[in-house]
Write a structure and sequence with these properties.
Strand content: under 5%
Shape: globular
Order of helices and strands: HHHHEHHHHHHHEH
CATH class: Mainly Alpha
Number of strands: 2
Structural class: mainly alpha
Helix content: over 70%
Number of domains: 1
Length: about 375
Amino acid sequence: MSSSAARLTRQWTTWGPVVAAVALGLAWGRDLPGFAVVLIALCLIAAVLAAVHHAEVVAHRVGEPFGSLVLAVAVTVIEVGLIVTLMAGGGGDKTSTYARDTVFAAVMITCNGIVGLSLLVAALRNRVASFNAEGSGGALATVCTLATMTLVLPSFTTSHPGPEFSSAQLAFAAVASLCLYGVFVTVQTFRHRDYFLPVATGDRGVPESEDEHAEPPTDRETWAGLGLLLLALVAVVGNAKLVSPTIEDGVQSAGLPQAVVGVVIALMVLLPETLAAVRAARRDRMQTSLNLAYGSAIASIGLTIPAIALASIWLSGPLVLGLGPVHMVLLVLTAVVSALTVVPGRATLLQGGVHLSIFAAFVFLSLSP
């Protein structure tokens, strides 16, 4: 990248979160006309892209797999904040499924959309995408366990009518999810960190990204990047809250199911992960892409469910977590196909296409259940 392009990137990634935050402050609590909603949406996109850049700055400093963890947690903070703010806005039964719909959409997007797209990019570039089966397999097992405990079991428990947990069951699920997430992070970053590092490909050794040839950012640049990352996250949460009424009205006007709102929310907050994962796959670092995808799914469940459980103390209305039969089938299909993809440690164009077809089925059935 030329020096002028680098300066331009630094400028917009610095001012983007600031402008988005200022727009959030000016628009908060107001009824926005159509053109204002468009401007807020543009600020939201700028804040998301800036968040990706600053997360990568911090990641370049701390290295893998800490870098993937930084972005995964950052994106999940966006998701949790957005879900809680939407549910706190009221709506009773209307918002009772936001947490379930958003978390399940995040699982489908990460495990099928991001994984499938990354495999497609990596396979088109190198014919075969290579990754570490031990680390990816452990991450996938964690995703499946968390998804089953929090999204499937509520449909079968009998202590509370409907697809809901009782208070005790919700507390158990929240604590279990948080503990399992903590164990995963410990294994990923300390106990078995080598399981989550990019693997050697043929005789070329471990692939290097373009950023690894550059000097790591200084302490000042890292702290500045972290501060701008946090500012960008606040701007994303706030601006997404501002445009959410327009999304809800659009979904209602189009006669689409309410679950589509959760899908749109998940697509918005996972855009940084998608961009970062595809970029890593293009650089022949498929393990980093899987770290981002599965790490985001784990964080989405392991952090969102405890946060929603805590927020349910003061939030009014029911909290529906149990999936319906169609979504359960998609979850089981995702688990089986993902296991067959991960176990060999190598994947081709076919596996990428299979995952993307499952993701397409999820989107279509969300629009036309």
